[in-house]
Each structure stands twice: as structure tokens, then as C-alpha cells.
Automatic annotation (TrEMBL):
SMART domains linked: Ala_racemase_C (SM01005)
Enzyme class: isomerase
GO biological process, one term: peptidoglycan biosynthetic process
CDD domains registered for this protein in UniProt: PLPDE_III_AR
Binding positions for substrate per the UniProt entry: 131, 309
Source organism per UniProt: Longispora fulva
GO molecular function term, any single one: alanine racemase activity
Catalytic activity: L-alanine = D-alanine
Required cofactor names: pyridoxal 5'-phosphate
Pathways involved: Amino-acid biosynthesis; D-alanine biosynthesis; D-alanine from L-alanine: step 1/1
Official protein name in the record: Alanine racemase
Residue span, Alanine racemase C-terminal domain: 240-369
UniProt xrefs under InterPro entries: Ala_racemase, Ala_racemase/Decarboxylase_C, Ala_racemase_C, Ala_racemase_N, Ala_racemase_pyridoxalP-BS, PLP-binding_barrel
Length: 369
């Protein structure tokens, strides 16, 4: 019998992807980095492709090769490789790569020469986010160098891309500014002789609110997993992950009894305590101490005391709870259980972090429904 699990509803993944596909004429790139946001990259990738996505996006080379090793042949873009990474392995596996500097461009070209096949390349421009991407002052030099690399036959520039900084705030002026810079970057690339067929800047929030940002490809991330990319907005998405665990022990304690390290919680009256075997090793942040919402016995409760490495406690009062009962940390909310957004609210973070915290832990097996 299972002790704790992350249940993944693949039907929800398919429905979310299909919803997005029906609302855009662009190709949909399903982003399955970070092990599919904790849901499992390979099962999610397959579900997304079945539902209409045509491409996959990951951060690292190892993530891309995992998809290829699983027999997935759809186009895959890996966009975050440090210097010296074996780009020849990516080219050999038909993994598309990104470059934002002359050094990255040279490494991609060298990898292509090593394996004797053409590298498919996306050039990234920094339109204002300030992370990856070439600065506008360096963009002309990069696209001209990329055009020369294309002439060798070992590089094909198939994409130009960028990333929004504030798309989760649809009215933020930075969004229009970034789109203007992106249009400029595309013009510069065209002047250099490049003809990319995959122009992309829209992430989940922009997919749902900025059709003018869709271009050729949109990158579907957190919305694919059923969570809203914009706080307070309901886009009809269905969360795919439910995290739950069985109560390990219940016991009665007298009024005034302390709970967990530091005794930061004290039972206000005689009560039943329920011990749940999940802790910060399993992705439950210690910051959830005394604030984390959990449903047990059909009642939404709050974690009592500090979260430990392997366990936490719920104060259940006089409710009839027993060892073996199921405590639900979050799910789609169908039965009143907390959602990942509820957890994000009490932890003062974003739902992305909640998903990846829980879904990436090896002590919580994933079960696919």
C-alpha cells in the first residue's frame, strides 16, 4: 500500500493542450523542462503531442536526450547549455539548440562539424528580461555571424526567440516594449539574410492574453499543467497533479501540549493529532509550518507546528480520524481540497514552485491516471 504519491491526470494535460491549440494558429511547443514541471517529462510529452502540440521545449541537454532515449522523435529545443557542454551529442540526436553569443554559435557549429550533420539553431535576443539572449547592441553581429555559419552548411537558423518579463501582468507596459524590440530583432535578422520559420516569444500568459505575440510558435508551460499563469484569472484549465499521503499515526493529547520542533504550536484543548509522513525532503517547504493547508477527513486544516524533514502534524480536534486516512495537500479542488494556488498564496510564492517542489522528489512516486 502506498504511503505518499503524486497522482498525475494525463487527461487534464491533454485537455489543457487541446484548449490552447484550438485558440491559436501557431504551432504549440509543450515545455517539459524540470521533469515536466514535476509531472514526468516523458509521459507529459507524449500526452501533449497526442493532444496537438507539435514541438517540445526543455532547458538542458540531458532533458532533451531523455526524450530521445524514450523514443520521442518530435522536434525538441534545448535552450540552456553552459560552455563546454557536448553540443555534438545534441546535433547527433537531432536536438535543436539556442545561441545568444558568438561563443555559443561557435560551439554549436563545431559540434555540427564533429558529427557531420547540420545543427538546427534558434538565436535568442534579450528584449528586456535581462537573462539569456543577446543584447540589442550585439544582435547585428550575432545574426551576421549566424548567416556566415549557415553558408557553411553546418548550421541552419530555424528560429529567433525571446522571453517576456511581465506577461503575467497583461497591462504592464514592458510587454508592448518587448514586442517592439522583438519585431526590430526580426527585421535585423532578415536584413542579414536569415529566414527563421520559428519565431517565438509567447509563454503561457502571453498565449492566453496576447494573440499579437503568437508568431509561428508559442511555448506552453504552466498552463499545460492546469495552473493559471495570471493570478486571479480563470482560463478553464484543469490542474493535473494531486499530492496526498496516508496518516501514519493519530493520538490524543491534552490541552497545552506542544507540537513539533520549537513548540511553535500548542494544542488549545484536548485534541487528536494526526502525523502525516511528508516533510521538507519531499518538497514540503519548512515555510509551510503553521500555515500550510491540508484536507483530511473532508475538512481543510492547517499544519500545526513546524514541518520536519519527513513529517508534519495536523490538529484534528475531536474529529474521527485514523491512521491510514488520506491527507490531500493539493489537487484540482474538486472536493474542496487545497489547490497549488492556495499553497502558493500561503507560501508567498508562485504555483510553478509548488508543482516542481513536490513532483521532483524521489520519495513521492508518480502515479498516472
Amino acid at each position: 500500500m502506498w504511503q505518499a504519491e503524486a497522482s498525475i491526470e494525463l487527461g487534464a494535460i491533454r485537455a489543457n493542450v487541446a484548449r490552447v491549440c484550438s485558440g491559436t494558429s501557431a504551432e504549440v511547443m509543450a515545455v517539459v523542462k524540470a521533469d515536466g514541471y514535476g509531472h514526468g517529462a516523458v509521459p507529459v510529452a507524449r500526452a501533449a503531442l497526442e493532444a496537438g502540440a507539435t514541438r517540445l521545449g526543455v532547458a538542458t541537454l540531458s532533458e532533451a536526450l531523455e526524450l530521445r532515449d524514450a523514443g520521442i522523435t518530435a522536434p525538441v529545443l534545448a535552450w540552456l547549455l553552459a560552455p563546454g557542454q557536448p553540443r555534438e551529442q545534441a546535433v547527433a540526436a537531432d536536438v535543436e539548440l539556442s545561441a545568444a553569443s558568438l561563443t555559443e554559435l561557435a560551439e554549436v557549429a563545431a559540434g555540427a562539424v564533429t558529427v557531420g550533420r547540420t545543427a538546427r539553431l534558434h538565436l535568442k535576443v534579450d528584449t528586456g528580461l535581462g537573462r539569456g539572449g543577446a543584447q540589442p547592441r550585439d544582435w547585428l553581429e550575432l545574426v551576421e555571424a549566424a548567416a556566415k555559419a549557415e553558408a557553411t552548411g553546418f548550421v541552419e537558423v530555424v528560429g529567433v526567440w525571446s522571453h517576456f518579463a511581465c506577461s503575467d501582468e497583461p497591462e504592464h507596459p514592458a510587454n508592448d516594449s518587448q514586442l517592439e524590440r522583438f519585431a526590430w530583432a526580426l527585421d535585423v535578422a532578415a536584413t542579414a539574410g536569415l529566414r527563421p520559420t520559428q519565431r517565438h516569444i509567447a509563454n503561457s500568459a502571453a498565449i492566453l492574453t496576447r494573440p499579437d505575440a503568437h508568431y509561428d510558435v508559442v511555448r506552453l508551460g504552466v498552463a499545460m499543467y492546469g495552473l493559471t499563469p495570471i493570478a486571479g484569472r480563470d482560463f478553464g484549465l484543469r490542474p493535473a497533479m494531486t499530492v496526498r499521503a496516508r496518516v501514519a499515526l493519530t493520538k490524543r493529547v491534552p490541552a497545552g501540549h506542544g507540537v513539533s520542533y520549537g513548540l511553535t504550536y500548542t494544542a488549545p484543548a484536548e485534541t487528536t493529532l494526526a502525523l502525516v509522513p511528508l516533510g521538507y525532503f519531499d518538497g514540503l517547504p519548512r515555510a509551510a509550518s503553521n500555515v500550510g493547508p491540508v484536507q483530511l477527513g473532508g475538512v481543510r486544516r492547517t499544519i500545526a507546528g513546524r514541518v520536519a524533514m519527513d513529517q508534519f502534524v495536523l490538529d484534528c480536534g475531536d474529529d474521527d480520524v485514523h491512521a491510514g486516512d488520506i491527507a490531500v495537500l493539493f489537487g484540482p479542488g474538486d472536493d474542496g481540497e487545497p489547490t497549488a494556488d492556495d499553497w502558493a498564496d500561503v507560501l508567498h510564492t508562485i504555483n510553478y514552485e509548488v508543482l516542481t517542489n513536490f513532483g521532483s522528489q524521489r520519495r513521492i512516486p508518480r502515479v498516472y491516471r
